[in-house]
Here is the input.
Amino acid sequence: MLGPVILAASRSDRMRRLISAAPVTKQVVDRFIPGETVDDIVPIVEQLTAGGLELTMDVVGEDITTPEQAFAARDAYLALIDRLAELELGERVETSVKLSMFGQALDGGHELAFANVRPVVEAAAAIGTTVTLDAEDHTTLDSMFAIHDELRKDFPQTGCVIQAYLFRTEADARRLAASGSRVRLVKGAYKEPAEVAYQQKHEIDKAYVRILRTLMEGEGYPMVGSHDPRLISIAQELARKAGRKLDEYEFQMLYGIRGDEHLRLAAEGHRMRVYTAYGTDWYGYFMRRLAEKPANLRFFARSMLTRG
Here is the structure.
């Protein structure tokens, strides 16, 4: 039950200062976040795409408190897309955005986030790629889905993320599957109350399979966000039963986790996309990676002890 404790710590300023100041932290963070700037990340992008993988890029940072910070986040994504254009990787690399980073939580945040994300979506479309709207805590989802619906009027390839642990997600999946959109299904990585979300792993796993079946049998493009070998096998079987070809769905996994599996799936002909984050405001992203999987926490603790 360490996951909820770690997720609570991800919102703690005191824990942020403590962990950020630890001398070995950056060495461990690099496993999940391999750079702070676009220049840092270009060699990683080239290496992964040369290995037959596709990517979705995330500029980390969520604690936006001013419109100016939201504008800066928008500009960071536009700079990323400009670099992808130079590398001619628009067909292999998409971007993932959190609307909180575009000002969603500020006064007038829904309109501000939409105004900031639209030029990013336009720029992505211009180079042959797209944007996926990441899901955040349950209080933000109505706004996220409304922005997603609005963007898809002009950019139907715009994707979104749904989270299996939320009770609402089965209904969201039915709506999205019917609309033909690109949908990434994940288990969920925020601390949610029992009133809105499953709390036990076995309940979340069962919900994941139910929702994935809906997506595979629907008219959209499912993106299977999981590192769980059992769920990956189930996804393959559901795709087969639904008559989907290998290019009609994809797997997505995080950079730094199960890299051999990334390459195995790609070698078998599957579309395999690596979620690759970069930037300086890494704390919240990093803590959720620890909370998602006990092995990640053990890796961090072992590194702290052996490198400290």
User: Anything to note?
Assistant: The chain is about 55% helix and 15% strand.
